[in-house]
Automatic annotation (TrEMBL):
Pfam families with a match to the protein in the record: AMP-binding, AMP-binding_C_3
GO cellular component, one term: membrane
GO molecular function: ATP binding; long-chain fatty acid-CoA ligase activity
The protein's name: Long-chain fatty acid--CoA ligase
Source taxon at top rank: Bacteria
Catalytic reaction(s) noted: a long-chain fatty acid + ATP + CoA = a long-chain fatty acyl-CoA + AMP + diphosphate
Gene3D superfamilies, sorted: 3.30.300.30, N-terminal domain of ligase-like
UniProt keyword terms in alphabetical order: ATP-binding, Ligase, Nucleotide-binding
InterPro entries, per database record: AMP-bd_C_sf (IPR045851), AMP-dep_synth/lig_dom (IPR000873), ANL_N_sf (IPR042099)
Length: 568
């Protein structure tokens, strides 16, 4: 493995590895009815040609280039080419509305957009308006755009581009990653090369200790436009792990069994959906199978939390491992070594469910503003109530009000064209000292591991002045099989209420029973006094981010009249 500190930029890293591993598979993707593969050498040549094509069309160092594409090789090729010529990539979600694209284009000042489909090219062109973009590239033949093949037809000089990439300073701006906007308009996070390379150095020992086989692969299905997936894609490939681009979340279950990955990254919402499906399927099984499943969960949790199993229980647990856990592992491909959750807090009860079933669920923590990986659990030190120990090179401390503060090479340079927000997020303790990133998350450090308890700005202050954590209540609600999604309300109100999305096939009576059970686990102040069933929160209706985080503020705004009725 090449030395960890050899490269100062992402394109230098990728082109350098292509020299070392020319024939090694790098990317696997579905095209024309079958799986296709791209080697490192092929990747580097395509990066070189796209870089030459962008330069030939006037893209200069510092120019911003929007990328709107699903997970596919062309995304990483374009992204690397843009950075290699000193320009700045601006990844955008394919689910963005025209208004969303317009905000990104206005805010970033992008001169060029690279899109994957005619529909996306049309949306971006509409968002830009007349004369808003100098160049629109499309991977499908689309009138008014430059075809991807034409852009890459300009032959580039790979040794020259690699030499240029080697001279890119680590502090140069690499990309603008726009926050997913759970609270207000998305802000452009300025990530320099050093931030993402700091993440790479931070996980190096973790990857080595996993001792992955040479044919290890990583199934990628979260959008590459999100900071989590964007960085992880570079990190894992740079350790020789082949990326397999999923055809979509709806095919994920089949692809897990087919691709048999060693590594998968996910967000909490996926675990919620999977648990609901598993429990729904369990209801159709025989009474014996249900008892075996329940015993597997019970003993699996005991192994993690204590008290220790006695000799008879250990024997029973070993039998259940063959009868139940082996089947669960096979549904995930049978070779999974790390199923890493990030992007939002994963409830310990939810992770415990999968850990008890024998799946290697590891919760990590990060923010777009921090590269984005701050900490992660490991298979050999996995505390499901924490988000793991900070990565090497990352300093974490807890402020007097409980806020998590971060310092290190991984932190952003600030928010693009937003000095006020930058000053609020990056604050030094003393003049001329290195600033701390104020995350807005509330947490604590226990035995060296970081625990996240809530979002600072999301605390509910009731009419009586009591402070209530909505995340805790929502997690308990969504742990009930009758409830798919939940948002609680109560700011400035006399009591807590809830907006609930029923699980498939559940009615109001089922919801009432679930709320009653949850209330039995809550304090008097936290208990839910009123609730209502609402339509699902989705990306399409604007109530979920593309990484499946609920936009709490938007949900409360959309259902404001119903919330008002709770207290009338």
């Amino acid at each position: 493995m090449p030395a960890e500190d050899k490269w100062n930029s992402l394109p230098a890293l990728m082109l350098g590895l292509a020299r070392s591993w020319p024939d090694r598979p790098m990317l696997r993707f579905w095209r024309n009815g079958g799986w296709r593969s791209l080697t490192w050498a092929e990747f580097a040549l395509q990066v070189t040609d796209i870089a030459a094509g962008l330069r030939a069309r006037g893209i200069c160092p510092g120019d911003r280039v929007l990328i709107v594409a699903e997970n596919r090789p062309e995304f990483l090729i374009a992204d690397t080419a843009i950075m290699a010529i000193g320009a700045v990539s601006v990844p955008a979600y394919t689910t963005n509305t025209v208004a969303d694209h317009a905000h990104l284009l206005r805010d970033s000042g992008a001169r060029c957009a690279i899109t994957s489909t005619a529909k996306l090219a049309s949306a971006v062109a509409e968002a830009a308006g007349l004369g808003g973009l100098d160049l629109v590239v499309c991977m499908e033949d689309t009138p008014g755009t430059v075809p991807w093949g034409t852009l890459g037809a300009t032959r580039g000089d790979l040794p020259m581009l690699a030499a240029e990439a080697d001279q890119i300073p680590s502090g140069r701006l690499a990309c603008l990653i726009y926050t997913s906007g759970t609270g207000g308009a998305p802000k452009g996070v300025m990530l320099p090369h050093r931030a993402m390379l700091a993440n790479r150095r931070g996980i190096a020992s973790f990857i080595r200790r996993l001792a992955l086989p040479r044919d290890a692969c990583y199934l990628s299905f979260l959008p590459l436009s999100h900071a989590y997936e964007h960085t992880v894609a570079y990190l894992l490939t740079s350790f020789g792990i082949e990326i397999v681009f999923s055809r979509g979340a709806e095919r994920l279950s089949a692809e897990l069994a087919e691709v048999r990955p060693q590594v998968v990254t996910a967000v909490p919402r996926l675990f919620e959906v999977l648990r609901a499906r598993i429990l729904a399927g369990l209801e159709k099984q025989s009474a014996l199978q249900q008892r075996l499943f329940e015993a597997t969960l019970r003993l699996g949790l005991r192994r993690m939390d204590g008290p220790p199993l006695n000799a008879l229980e250990r024997a029973e647990d070993a039998v259940l491992d063959r009868l139940v856990r082996r089947k669960v592992r096979q549904r995930f491909g049978g070779r999974l070594m790390a199923l890493v959750s990030g992007g939002a807090r994963l409830d310990p009860d939810l992770s415990g469910f999968f850990l008890a079933l024998g799946l290697p669920v590891l919760q990590g923590y990060g923010q777009t503003e921090a590269g984005p990986v701050v900490s992660v659990n490991t298979p050999w030190e996995n505390d499901r109530r924490s988000v793991g120990r900070p990565l090497p090179g990352v300093t974490v401390r807890i402020a007097g009000d409980g806020e998590v503060l971060i310092r290190g090479a991984l932190t952003m340079d600030g928010y693009w064209n937003n000095p006020e927000a930058t000053a609020a997020a990056l604050r030094p303790e003393l003049p001329d000292s290195e600033p701390w990133l104020h995350t807005g998350d509330v947490g604590e450090i226990v035995n060296g591991a970081l625990r996240i308890t809530d979002r600072k700005r999301d605390f509910i202050k009731t009419l009586s002045g009591e402070m209530v954590s909505p995340a805790r209540i929502e997690s308990l609600l969504m742990a009930e099989p009758e409830i798919a999604q939940a948002v609680v309300a109560g700011e400035g109100r006399p009591a807590i209420s809830a907006l609930l999305v029923p699980a498939e096939g559940q009615d109001a009576a089922a919801l009432e029973g679930a709320v009653r059970r949850v209330n039995g686990r809550l304090t008097t102040v936290e208990r839910i006094r009123r609730f209502a069933a609402v339509e699902p929160f989705t990306v399409e209706n604007g109530l979920l981010t593309p990484t499946m985080k609920v936009k709490r503020r938007m949900v409360l705004q959309v259902h404001a009249a119903r919330v008002d009725q709770f207290y009338s």
